[in-house]
Amino acid sequence: MGPLCMTRDFCLFLLLLNTRQSAALPHAPDADQCAAGGDTCHIDAFCQNTQTSYKCTCKSGFKGDGKQCEDIDECDAEHNGGCVHECNNIPGNYRCTCYDGFRLARDGHNCLDVNECFFNNGGCQHVCVNTMGSYQCLCKEGFFLSDNQHTCIHRSVEGLSCMNKEHGCSHICRETPKGGVSCECRPGFELATDQHGCILTCNHGNGGCQHICEDTEHGPACGCRGRYTLQADGHSCIETCAVNNGGCDSTCKDTTTGVRCSCPVGFSLQPDGKTCEDIDECELHNGGCEQFCRNTVGSFECSCHKGFKLLTDERSCQDVDECYFESTCDHTCVNWPGRFECRCNRGFSLYGLAHCGDVNECSVNNGGCGHTCENIVGGFLCHCPAATRLHWNKKDCVGKMAGPDVCGLHGAKTGDTLKLFSFVCFLCFLFSVIGGTVCSHACCSAGSREVENVQFSFVRLRCVSSGHRARSRHGRKADEEDGSSITAQFQLDLNPEEVTADSCDLACVRRRSEKRLRKTLRTLRKSINREQFHFHFGGSEKLARPGQPAGQCGVGQVLIDKKCVSCTVGMYHDTEQGRCVPCPAGTYQDEEGQASCVACPGLKGRTVPRPAGARSLAECGGQCSPGHFSHDGFVPCRPCHRGSYQPERGRTSCFPCGGSLVTKHEGAASFQACETKVQCSPGHYYNTSTHRCIRCPMGTYQLEFGQNYCVSCPGNTTTDFDGSTNITQCKNRRCGGELGEYTGHIESPNYPGDYPANVECTWTINPPPKRRILIVVPEVFLPVEDDCGDYLVMRKSPLPNSVTTYETCQTYERPIAFTSRSKKLWIQFRSNEGNSRKGFRVPYVTYDEDYQELIEDIVRDGRLYASENHQEILKDKRLMKCLFDVLAHPQNFFNYTAEESREMFPKSFIRFLRSKVLRFLRP
């Protein structure tokens, strides 16, 4: 019973699989002999091209082998073409006609009486009476019908003459030479034996019969064509459902008065009582659809905007959370209604819609550094030459002055054992530390003044778990066996003016400083071992312990809608209030998720407004604006001299335009203000040596006019050509995908962004024994206009003549699913040098070959292609993952509840596949 249950559960789950006809492309046919006129088909036959030749088929209404065709006589005596009156054979067809007094019914076969009295009273002067196949004029009292059978004559003459109302003739009265009268009949009637009455024959109005008329001695006898019934009046024929469905478009029911037509749900019966017309449900309240309503024949279908999916009620739309998968974005994924947005950490730029690459800040104007620029992952560093130091703006180099020196302390911890402590002296001073080790710097030359009175002022701790280690700009990467790493940075202010010769000399200050530092290190060591840390945030004591209770967030985060959200820039996490608050005036915070704010640089006696909530150093206030400078970067400031510019705040100098170029005015804020000899367009930069515009080389781009640099592409990306104008043209050329034994996918380079030009990728799927491959192509965008320069092919091996499963060089936005025609699959994607289109992602799953018949039955059914909502299933990464998980391992079906399955897929999809699964399960 176990295997049977597993089979049943697996198959029931396959109700959720949405696929469509296998897409193996046929081989190119031979020359089109039909189009070339080289066929031998009869003139009344169709020529149809085949793989190797052509075939002839007689047209409808003809019979023969295609090489010889002759007309079929549908009007043979036995069937009369189904016509109730006359059948006229024509080449390849036939046409029914009716006798005078009748008209052809809508079905093209039956004949209905024409009511001549409806038009101009039938031409009668007084009264018109309609009869089957004809009509009759009557006169009012005191009048009799004239010989023309339409006008009426007043009876006023007595005697034996035709003017006497008692002449006794039924139709026409004639006076004889002897003064008597004789009677005659209208055409189609015969004079009765009494020489006065007229007997109707089949020659007039078909004898009053609707279908068949036969003359007898008592007058016409009426009959009906096959499968019609003679009514009680003996003249009319009632339609039956056996004849052309009673003329009904849909359902026909026989009644005593004839057929009764009805229509299925989604159609309405028209006034003719026969025709069914589709109801456009979308006209009324949009069909009940929340977003889009599309009318279909006999029904309608709701659909949603891109970025939304249809719920199981098949009316409502719900936003698709693209951020459900962590792999959606390299760094941060932000879900919006109907869309999502990928964001990158500071120091990284977005490319390929979802990926983040390190920005080479040094490629743009040397990073703004006054001396040398060093690019590092996620940022950059400016370096200064000897005898100078880095300004607080981290870019300018200024003269070395007595003041604060900085040491950095780095520690790493494994378990309860402190493995490493080391000092790095960033500025020039001589200091003795633990164990007699001397911290020195190359710039510490003999005779350099030693600093005194070291005071503890700032400590910053950063804990990184083993699963999220990152290389710090000033730290080291912990060994793989390390459980976590802790980096502490100490800033020590040294004030030589506080040293007095009578109280404490230089050696005394050094000893005191060493004692305080050793005490600090002992405290830090104990905190590390106990995993408890005391902090000073916002002027209050804080204690940090490992671990967070369920439902709470870490430092720098608050709980919003059951999610931990980091405090944004310009704010910090106030643990006492339990919320994010703006940075106080005089501080700033340019990082998210921080528990404190950073003090703005001092102005030394100058007072400027300090706004609260500053998000960067530039918002602290008091700094020189772009186009200006000062000796310390603060007000008062001077404008950049003519021939120079400064694009940043708080700088101590301006950049020269170079090449003897000048600016029109002082205070220029960019190179674009320099009066160049030619205006460079985007994709170019101005060379100040040659005074020419140079195309940006491959791997760089320039978005603006009139710049003197090109921006390097982020990370490991490059451009297809030189002269690029946008970062979107930076692409990763690495072939993507994950190839697993059971599930996996392939990705074009730079997916989900545009794939690069002139690239080639190959993948090989080799499933385990007794397993087959199912592939889904949600969509693919390949330009067809360049003779298939870009193509995607799937076949058994790299050999061109091997079995091919799929091959395309066109764009298909509608999904497709198919099984591999070979046990293993070799896949190749190639683009030529002239194209780049939207990238693609093709998932696959390997399944037990025992289910081959069922899978083939599903993927080869073209009806799956009819519903847009079914197609969206194949484009939904989350649903495809669920489907593939169960296809690969049927026992995973039990990981999903019945309610979850119902909520995932529309009812129409499950109803459509139920018959296939039940048929597969039936013994």
TrEMBL record:
Listed GO biological process terms: epithelial cell differentiation; signal transduction
GO cellular component: cell surface; extracellular space
SMART domains named among the record's database cross-references: CUB, EGF, EGF_CA, Ephrin_rec_like
Sorted UniProt keywords: Calcium, Disulfide bond, EGF-like domain, Glycoprotein, Repeat, Secreted, Signal
Recorded superkingdom: Eukaryota
NAD in keyword set: no
Cleavable signal peptide: 1-24
Domain CUB: 735-847
EGF-like domain location: 30-70, 113-149
Cellular compartment(s): Secreted
Molecular function GO terms recorded: calcium ion binding
Pfam entry (one): Ephrin_rec_like
Protein name per Swiss-Prot or TrEMBL: Signal peptide, CUB domain, EGF-like 2
Organism, as annotated: Electrophorus electricus
Gene: SCUBE2
